[in-house]
């Protein structure tokens, strides 16, 4: 009798097989010592496509919506069918008496396994391997303490509801809005409210009207201060004339230190990392996208065995981990962490608090920390070193004392005008010692006494302007997604709100990438900016779909299903009602929004033509109407004022260009638009000769635009 172990990936299966002694290679598996170890390749099974329920659904037609199957059907994924067939046969093998689910220990891992198990119509007993790291010790201990698979059935129901609700909202919404607006408009239960967060911020930026103001600073020799209003305590001066009047009043005058106020400030160590916080810090410090950070962390978990399971939403450890913390610190002792590790190892006892260990705040997995394995960090790639450094640094920091400093405010009075100076004096560096260099630790409090006389040696007026809200970086958007659109600075309050976030730590990166892929968002440096298409989409969908709060409520419900506290049927009934409402709203709503027509099939997953970031690049001012900007479409270069009747357009597949074996590239189009002319090199004539030719922008008799040769063509011999 044998036990069948199903892992999520081949690499993990090999690690497990090594521990179990399954050394004999079979087709798509490893066998030995009473075990057969096989693997999925991510998802092997998916929900059926609409036309697989009925051929009539192959055509996108509003009359066939809403599509609400009585029972959602599964199918093997064609690309990986061979591996599915292998697992199906192993599940049916009479010698296999039980199955061990060893996919990733989380919601998606549970879904991957259960979909395979259900489609194969298996009913053999299930045990669950539930581990947080892939070290040999963790795998061995996990198999010694296998859990009853039935205990994870609610987690599967939560994953199933997530999968089916995404299908219902996505399929019906995408078809309804695409048919209505004759442009491929992908809709997502999580994707659309995430886009709405970006669109709302962009609207705030566009509506922002900057205001000029001035600030006056005074130099008192050993320190400087900023003028403040005695009543409002504001430093803004609303006119330059007033600033100059104040400057004239105080320059070269004597004053005195009116007041010194010091407050003792205490900053506790940060909490340990969950995935979202790690992605946020990696974006801030190294500019990594959320998707890149997840990929690096997954490699550190699976291949290097250096960190624990990264797809976690917890920032706490469970009590059973306390006994092994000393070994983890010892493993980090060499290199850049030596000083900090030695401090902790000399302590009689590690300072464990509820901010570090709290079983009530650990659900599927604990926080991301280094494993017990002592790895050779010198062999890591630079990206791996960077992410591991963040995790190791944070892991050590939580055990250090508070950072304590005096925050001091000095008020200097000159000719009855007040100047404010602020500074800090570090009393206890604590955990900040891991993050600060010596220069940052220097005190900057003015060495003055109350009543001390001073002299205004110099003054300076600075012209300033109010700034619009900042665009979202990935770090900021991840925060907003985690808290259903709310930007929350306080770390402990963030923890209370995260259960109602948009998506999960494991999915947020892919949601951001999907928004970029379908042309709703562009990435400019670290900023994420919605395109015209993205803004238009949010203008036409109902608030119930674009509301981060609504999606947050759904996510909270999915969490309750996973804990066995909510009936999954009730959740899906609500999703079906919402889907029907979405289709009805798309059919009845008539906002005056026009989407650019796209070439059929351009916005399929992975396509570069899907009304992409290129639609937002401005190629120059419109030569026709003089008011619009020229943008790139899927077929042409067109004026942003086309809705107002501007007929400017240059076709990419220009027939005359094609005749001479050239294309209307973006570079040529830019030159024509900005300079009125462009140089075509290596033009091939119908006779076979080659020549260079200058071309000029030209308005055609039809009112549209094109080009013409600027001079007589001179052919060259090949």
UniProtKB/TrEMBL annotation:
One MF term in the entry's GO annotations: DNA binding
TM region positions: none
Family of this protein: Belongs to the type IA topoisomerase family.
Pfam family, one: Toprim
Swiss-Prot/TrEMBL keywords: DNA-binding, Isomerase, Magnesium, Metal-binding, Topoisomerase
Domain of life: Bacteria
Protein name: DNA topoisomerase
Matches recorded under PANTHER family: DNA TOPOISOMERASE 3-ALPHA, PROKARYOTIC DNA TOPOISOMERASE
GO biological process: DNA recombination; DNA repair; DNA topological change
GO cellular component: cytoplasmic replication fork
Reactions accelerated catalytically: ATP-independent breakage of single-stranded DNA, followed by passage and rejoining
Record domain Topo IA-type catalytic: where: 152-583
CDD domains: TOP1Ac (cd00186), TOPRIM_TopoIA_TopoIII (cd03362)
NCBIfam families: PRK07726.1, topB
Keyword Metal-binding among record annotations: yes
Coiled coil, from the record: none
InterPro entries: Topo_IA, Topo_IA_2, Topo_IA_AS, Topo_IA_cen, Topo_IA_cen_sub1, Topo_IA_cen_sub2, Topo_IA_cen_sub3, Topo_IA_core_domain
EC number(s) given by UniProt: 5.6.2.1
Species annotation: Geosporobacter subterraneus DSM 17957
Toprim domain boundaries: 2-135
Taxonomic lineage of the native organism: Bacteria, Bacillati, Bacillota, Clostridia, Peptostreptococcales
UniProt key word Magnesium: yes
Broad class of enzyme this protein falls into: isomerase
